[in-house]
Automatic annotation (TrEMBL):
Boundaries of every No apical meristem-associated C-terminal domain copy: 177-282
Protein name: No apical meristem-associated C-terminal domain-containing protein
Stretches with biased composition (Basic and acidic residues): 270-285
Xref: InterPro entries: NAM-associated_C
Ranges of biased composition (kind: Polar residues): 209-232
Pfam families: NAM-associated
Highest taxon in the source lineage: Eukaryota
Amino acid sequence: MQNYQNPNPQNSQIPPVPTNPAIFLPSPNNPNMYPIPQMNSNSMGFSTQVPPFSTQVGTEKEERVVVKKRSREQFTREEDILLIQSWLNVSKDPIVGVDQKAESFWLRIAASYNQYRGQLREKLRGQLKCRWHRINGMVQKFVGCYKIALKGKKSGTSETNVMANAHAIFAQDQGTTFNLEYAWRLLKDEAKWRIVEESIGSSAKITKTYASGASSENPDTTSSYEFNSSSPMERPMGQKAAKRKGKASEIPNATQDAKNKRAITMDRLAQAKEDELELRNERRSGSSSRPKRRTTVDRGREEGHNRLFNDYFSENPVYTDVQFRRRFGMHRHVFLRIVDALGNHDEYFQMRVDATGKMGLSPLQKCTSAIRMLAYGSLADLVDEYVRIDEITSIECLERFVKGVNVIFGAEFKQ
């Protein structure tokens, strides 16, 4: 604008008035403003009614592409049940346990879910994790409502009425209905969501009993002060004073109990020393006055074999292949191959009849005991209650099992 030349050189002081009213002209009183020359349609290529760089040029409406958002997939009841079962199976795995990272934990849950989903939709790890936290939060809130309803249960109230009261309490507290009752029924017996029965009906409120016999919990109890207004009411004992009084009364009893326990312990030590001395004398003399008896425990070996066979090796076993793999550390056909090979290699792993005519331990019992000890690193007598095999026999089975497997499969699996 500094190189601008006045289009009318005859009159350079007063600028000419343009014929186009759309052109803005500055005030002549401001010397810093210069007039804008008149523009016509021939020089600019557009109408003089519209100034350049006007917002009126190109005001056609632009078409916007509207992209509809995809609705979030809602979990069905069957998907929720499968998710809860997968979470319980992975979290209660005795081999891996919960000593793992969160990412690995949820990857295992997603793998278990997608493995058994059947016709259900495939879900990602993030989707299952989000849905589980939603279910867990709602179920925990309903557990609190159910506990309140159970505490207020009256005589003659059925379980249906308790559930109705729990739903009403949940709707009043949360402002919505509880539609995950099937999830609560799957989780209510687990340790995290279980309601301890001892806490129901108990109250932690400390009741104060006055000297007159009136209690703070029973306001209807009449005291002697109401009948004899002339005698002043005695002030009840304070809480700290009651504690001191109770401790003072307990000290003599505790001292006497300690003395009795000490006397009993000393008697036992003296008796043990006498028995040890007598045993030494018997060993030196070579004669013993005590009859030697061998205790025999009838463990029911046949029942243990039948239970083990029906649980894992029958045509319709109680436990599935997945549970067998988790508990034995191998597949069923691999275990049976080892049992057959050991039975052909060593007579110890064959079922024989003892001197009394009873059947001995089966190869399944002996191999199961050895495999459990190797897989879990457990004690020798840990499987006694289930397999019906004592500690000494378990150790012997383990030693023969290891030697037999090394001899039979050592060359095949040497690499």
